[in-house]
Amino acid sequence: MMIIIAVTFLGLLGHSFAYDEISLVRGCYTLEDDHKKNLDTTKFFTGDWYLTHSTNPDDSSLCQKYEVRHDLHLTFNGKSGPVECEGAKLSDYEWFYSFNCTTKDKTFIRFMSVLETDYTKFALLYRCGLYGSETSARENFLIFNRNKDGGVPREIGNKLKEFGLWTF
Fold first, then answer.
1. Exposed, middle or buried: residue 65 (CB in 10 Å: 0-12, 13-18, 19+)?
2. pLDDT of the chain along its 168 residues, tens only?
3. Residue 148 to residues 36, 49, 81, 151: CA-CA distances in angstroms?
4. Are the CB atoms for 14 and 6 separated by under 8 Å?
5. CATH number, span 40-162
6. Primary place of residence (predicted)?
7. CA distance 84 to 57
8. Are strands 73-78 and 65-68 parallel, antiparallel or unpaired?
């Protein structure tokens, strides 16, 4: 009897500390050839970014300031208040980052890849994830600027055309 209890306890303990590797949600673009090559994460994941443009006009985080730290921690104000996110690079798609985000009401995961950036003025990102109880991935192309009044930078025109994005 004691052996059964010990084995059960060790099994539960092992399960509690098991690492579940996060993988990209089915339905998201993999962007193998379209991401920013040699992304300098120390330059990108620092300071404030403002979400100025989105292919989803109902994006509740539009015009929000994202405070980003080099350790892949970011914060912003969402629909229901402050959102805190902790990020990690995906192992199977190393140009993607998963962000485990929490609000006062829920926890959710978003996947993000940087398509283009100059680090000091603008960034074009692809974001994908499941929303609520949905089973199909929803994606969004986003333009971030270091200036809250930033526009669509000329430098990303060709990248936008590659994805059939003519206007935001």
1. middle
2. 444 443 334 343 333 333 345 677 777 888 888 999 999 999 999 999 999 999 987 766 678 899 999 899 999 988 778 999 999 999 889 999 999 999 998 888 899 999 999 999 999 999 998 777 777 788 899 999 999 999 999 999 888 988 888 766
3. 23, 8, 19, 9
4. no
5. 2.40.128.20
6. secreted
7. 23
8. antiparallel
